[in-house]
Amino acid sequence: MYIHSDGPVTVRNMKETPEDCSFAGRLAIEAFRSKFVHVTSERSIPTVIKCSEKSQYRQDPVFYQRNFIAEYNGEKAGLMMLKYNGDPEERDNDAWNALGCCDTLGLCCLGICLSSSVSKGKCYLDHICVDERFRGKGIGKVLMTVGENEARRNGCRSIYLYVSSTNRAKNLYERQGYRVKGEESCCCFIYCCTGEKVCFI
Ligand SMILES: CC(C)(COP(=O)(O)OP(=O)(O)OC[C@H]1O[C@@H](n2cnc3c(N)ncnc32)[C@H](O)[C@@H]1OP(=O)(O)O)[C@@H](O)C(=O)NCCC(=O)NCCS
């Protein structure tokens, strides 16, 4: 069922199908490739993508309600994940076993840095990304509008995200009405794990 359908862009919940799992698992790595290279290595990326694709299966049903896929003229193009207070943790379904110790450790550190406990009444936009081929066509804007409507529907009064001070996506968020609430200088651990020096919330 579509949550948004207007013009070339449609948005729907992710399903546990090979097509959706493969798309979501791949894009979630490719769109943030530099972060994953930073904590693993360029050589490890194909394995990281395979593991990420596998990790999309056998998750709690809530996981598929929180993940949204945008299609552009019927082609899968974008992905967004929302989180709310009390959502179940993602299941560790042995998907990442193919990685060596160093890569696993790097990914664990990144996971610690990027995890956020969500307060009641708030919605956390965990990630939003659009396939490179489809950027600049308004898909990110549609996904964000869907996210805001979903947050409202779930009784939230605010929605928030973290963005690196150097990420151009900040323009999109500001146009969408988001305001910087705080600036965090990343401590040495976060800098080591993400490669970011400053991020905005
Ligand atoms: C950010 C992103 C989701 C926007 O999707 P989109 O469909 O291109 O967005 P729209 O067409 O609705 O809006 C265009 C805006 O997207 C942002 N954008 C476009 N290309 C981008 C890129 N390569 N990297 C980061 N942001 C980008 C810009 O804010 C742009 O506005 P601008 O031209 O005034 O700077 C998409 O570019 C992306 O996946 N970027 C890489 C992943 C990422 O950085 N995600 C945000 C993490 S906080």
TrEMBL record:
Looking at the record, the residues that make up the N-acetyltransferase domain are 9-196
Q: Which CDD domains match?
A: NAT_SF
PROSITE patterns, alphabetized: GNAT
Q: Which UniProt keywords apply?
A: Acyltransferase, Transferase
Single GO MF annotation: acyltransferase activity, transferring groups other than amino-acyl groups
Please list which residues make up the signal peptide: none
Q: A Pfam family in this protein?
A: Acetyltransf_1
The name this protein carries in UniProt is N-acetyltransferase domain-containing protein
State the organism of origin: Pinctada imbricata (Atlantic pearl-oyster)
